[in-house]
TrEMBL record:
<dbReference type="InterPro" id="IPR023163">
    <property type="entry name" value="SMc04008-like_domain"/>
</dbReference>
<protein>
    <submittedName>
        <fullName>DUF1244 domain-containing protein</fullName>
    </submittedName>
</protein>
<dbReference type="InterPro" id="IPR036810">
    <property type="entry name" value="SMc04008-like_sf"/>
</dbReference>
<dbReference type="Pfam" id="PF06844">
    <property type="entry name" value="DUF1244"/>
</dbReference>
<feature type="domain" description="SMc04008-like">
    <location>
        <begin position="35"/>
        <end position="100"/>
    </location>
</feature>
Length: 108
């Protein structure tokens, strides 16, 4: 398949990627807070916590000290404990089984 992506400068690409990331966070946090992290993990292999880890890793790679809680707050738009209290439900036995199966399927 031919590459149809327009050639972007590094700066433009960074702006576009940042805008897409902000839109993803807005979608997850504002439009779909009902989507549980375990369901994201089952279907996509990552969740909001993974995004926070990647965010923290990127900040640290740029020489910016960012801890786990600050990274989660940046991703969740609020302290994680607050988001969890408002939106996270106890995982069902079915979700736990599906998560276990997904982990086995994608583990090497």
């Amino acid at each position: 398949m031919a590459d149809v992506t327009p050639t972007l400068s590094d700066d433009a690409r960074t702006r576009v990627e940042a805008a897409a990331f902000r839109r993803l966070l807005s979608h997850l946090n504002d439009a779909r807070p009902d989507v549980q992290n375990i369901d994201l993990m089952i279907l996509a292999g990552f969740c909001r916590n993974c995004l926070a880890d990647w965010y923290r890793d990127a900040a640290n790679a740029e020489g910016m000290a960012l801890d786990k809680d600050a990274a989660r707050e940046a991703v969740y738009g609020m302290p994680f404990a607050e988001w969890k209290a408002q939106h996270q439900k106890e995982a069902t036995p079915e979700q736990l089984a599906a998560f276990e199966a997904a982990q086995k399927k994608h583990a090497g």
